[in-house]
Write a structure and sequence with these properties.
Layout lengths: L1 H33 L3 H7 L4 H15 L4 E7 L6 E7 L4 H13 L2 H8 L3 E4 L6 E8 L4 E8 L9 H89 L4 H28 L6 E5 H15 L4 E6 L7 E5 H17 L5 E9 L5 H5 L6 E8 L6 H6 L15 H11 L3 E6 L5 E8 L12
Parallel strand pairs: 7-9
Antiparallel strand pairs: 1-2, 1-5, 3-4, 4-5, 6-8, 9-10, 10-12, 11-12
Helix pairs in contact: 1-6, 3-6, 6-7, 7-12, 8-9, 9-12
Length: 452
Amino acid sequence: MPDRIAFSEQESAHVGEGHEVSRRFIRNAIEMALSCGDYQKEIDTRCTPANVLGKTIKRVRSLVRFEAAAIYLVDEHTSDLQYVAGWPKHHKAVVADEMEFLIDNGFVAWALRERRGITIYSRDGSRQILLHVLATYNRIRGLLVGIFPVDLRHLPEASLEILSIVLRNAANALESLELYGMLGDEKLRLERMVEEKTATVIGYEKQLMQRQKAEAIAVLAGGIAHQYNNALTGLIGNLDLLEMVGGQVPELMKHIERLRPIAQRMSGLTNQMLAYAQGGMAQPSVVPVRKLIQDVASAIRRILKPTTRLRIELPEDEKLLVRVDVTQMQMVLLAVVGNADEALEGSGEIEVIGWRATSKEKVQRRNTDGCEMVCIQVKDNGVGMDAETLQRVCEPFFSTKAVGRGLGMAAAQGVVKHHGGWMEMDSACGQGTRVCICLPIARGAVSTQIIS
């Protein structure tokens, strides 16, 4: 009896020690499973899927003794299971062979449907294999495949539940990373959209300010032009009278001859200011584009430097008509050609070409009214302009010349705009300048009164 009692005490101590080991194992496993909440902290510090898988493998290995194991993730594009990690690495082929067997026999599909851990015998029946999904509430992220050693026939229920927690947290972490990346991409996209919209708004504000400034200058220019016009009328009239009565006084005629070109230049400046301020067609006429260019050709040649070569190419269609104020449009062509001539250093060439715009040209793509357009292009091979100068070339009173009024191109643009067209300009330093005057094609008969 004493021996039996002694044995029982020894047996009880052994059982108590076993329970203590079991309790310690469960407590450590639960603490490890709960620590998976640290994934979110790692995600916030730019964790990667590889980091999540690495920590998951480390926790699984400390929880369960596998002879070989692997983690497969669902491919986003093909929905196939793709091998991403395994241990030990030299057993990858063994796991792949068993995985093929499990897929062919429908065990993988079963495990994915169950969304929990299931145990299957291996191909040769000598070992058991654990299949456990990595799944969130919304979707399946992957699959854990673990081959037990021969001496380990099954996994205890407590360990299986803790393993489920580990794998569920890993799946949640992978999904959080994906959503975090999507939110980051969407944030960048929205930031780019905001930047683009902001730039567009700033551009509109600049255009509005430019238009308001141009309108204010136009009002000022119109008022000044009318005052100058009144004064010039009296000045030129008196010059005519002096010329009539002073024909016998050579000294007086000499001064009159000096004053008349000055008065004429002032009259031209006044006309430019009025054209910029008003811009409308005072005497509209329907004229062929060929005649419009031909009539102004002689005046163009008079203003060019002797070293400048002029090439004019008229449109083939003689019935290509525009409705314009001929005097104002001739002034536009003279201003543009004069600007091109001033850009030539030494000798150079200026081309004046007219044609009907085709549907493939950007002129037609810019046209919002749907009417056909005609183009009159003035191109030179002069010094050209940089981007900043090109942007400001049509601003009133802007000029790069030491002596200049800066009204020619501004007035030209105002006139073309009020004729329902626009001017396109391309230029680069050392590559010359191209100015294209775009006007709507007119329909109807040619006007009988044409100013030549």
